[in-house]
Amino acid sequence: MDAASTKVNGKTLNPEGLYHVTINRFLAEDDDKFSVFENGTQSIGGSDLEIIIVYLKEYPLIPLRLGGRISLSP
Question: What's the average model confidence in pLDDT over 7-28?
């Protein structure tokens, strides 16, 4: 990967920088043979379900609005 051509929010990534990413267990445990994540240093661990539960407790769901595209049947 060429860091000079990779941008996040319009800013070029610093190859020496520290970045936080969220990945599922399949990627984190190298089951897919995508080994770049082996270099991670601060895993918080937990199952995918546990992490989702923590996230949803901190960031509640936004109420669903149908917007006229979907109708509910009785």
Answer: 82
